[in-house]
Design a protein that fits this description.
With 336 residues, the protein is α/β, with parallel strands linked by helices. It is built from eleven helices and nine strands. It is 33% helix and 12% strand. The two termini are 40 Å apart.
Length: 336
């Protein structure tokens, strides 16, 4: 299944996406009967699965992410309708303000497994494709939610790169575009709605049987979600401890990465689990003493071509639990 963009991918950019590691990760996981992804984000790993899926569950603490994937799996036409809108800075500000006000009620509503909101999904997707940098719908940063409205929290004189007035940060206006706003020379503006609808329908076909949860990552790692359904592949991509980049729903510096590593230490022995954990080089090397293997891969550098971003992309690493396929094959050769 491919879009005109030649790939089955999320229709929005997402910091920390792992599409470049799909081949490596699935070679380690194989084709388990059950698959769980507690930090879904752009769902790149699920979308990059090479084999026919079985039972699949994804989760994200960010209600906007979870709602988007749930809405796509229920009503892609409605989501496409709300996502199809021209780039407009005034609308970007207004919709950002409105969406931030939905944050808490949306997350609460998503505890109902049948709930989704196509308008929120479409507006969120449209906005994140027009937004530059981090902070979209986070309610933090230069534009802060004060409980009643979005407040421009920047101070004068403003000398930052983003600027103010005619020099302020603009929505994404590059010719290439991002996600649903990418350049379409063969379609033109008149065909953009059809392009979005086609992309979302393809995603619907892939996502319609995927279970989408919204909440703490540990909720989807209980036996009732994992091994009760058979051999289970678990892909863990928590906010990294290293680096200064932020995630949409936060998580940096909160110890989530360490907590995930502790879960891995406690569960890596389980022959019914094949676990792959992401991080920067050295972040989870304590696991190697328990038989985990390390595998490096090169991530895309994206827009932030800083020394830190370039260094981080080069140090991307995954740790594979002892029962992953690659480790099993290595042991077989050793004792042959």
């Amino acid at each position: 299944m491919k879009t005109r963009a030649r790939t089955l991918a999320a229709p929005y950019p997402f910091f920390g996406g792992k599409s470049g590691a799909c081949g490596l990760v699935w070679s380690l996981l194989g084709n388990p009967a059950n698959y769980v992804e507690p930090f879904a984000g752009s769902a790149a790993m699920l979308l990059g699965r090479p084999d026919e899926p079985g039972v699949e569950t994804i989760n994200d603490f960010d209600g906007f992410v979870a709602n988007f994937w749930r809405a796509i799996s229920r009503d892609p036409a409605a989501v496409a309708y709300h996502a199809d809108w021209p780039t407009n800075e005034t609308d970007l500000f207004a919709r950002h303000s409105w969406l931030v006000r939905q944050t808490e009620t949306l997350r609460e509503a998503l505890h109902d497994p049948d709930f989704y909101d196509a308008k929120i999904a479409g507006w969120w997707c449209w906005g994140i494709n027009n937004w530059i940098g981090s902070g979209w719908c986070s309610g933090s940063g230069p534009w802060v939610w004060d409980g009643e409205k979005i407040v421009d929290n920047r101070q004068l004189p403003h000398l930052g790169n983003a600027g103010r007035g005619i020099n302020r940060q603009l929505p994404h206006l590059g010719n290439a575009g991002r996600g649903i706003n990418r350049q379409l020379p063969h379609l033109g503006n008149a065909g953009r709605g059809a392009f979005i609808a086609e992309w979302f329908n393809i995603l619907y076909e892939r996502m319609r049987d995927v279970r989408v949860a919204c909440g703490d990552w540990q909720r989807v790692l209980k036996d009732s979600v994992t091994t009760r359904h058979g051999l289970t592949g678990v892909f863990l991509d928590p906010p990294y401890d290293k680096g200064s980049m932020d995630y949409g729903a936060g998580g940096m510096g909160l110890g989530i990465s360490s907590a995930v590593r502790s879960w891995c230490e406690a569960n890596g022995y389980n022959s019914m689990l094949r676990i792959v954990l992401c991080g920067h080089a050295g972040e989870h090397d304590d696991l190697t003493s328990q038989g985990w293997t390390t595998h490096q891969w090169a991530a895309r550098k994206g827009y932030a071509l800083t020394d830190e971003a370039i260094g981080n992309s080069a140090s991307e690493t995954v740790w594979a639990s002892p029962h992953c396929i690659a480790m099993q094959e290595t042991q077989a050769r050793m004792f042959a």
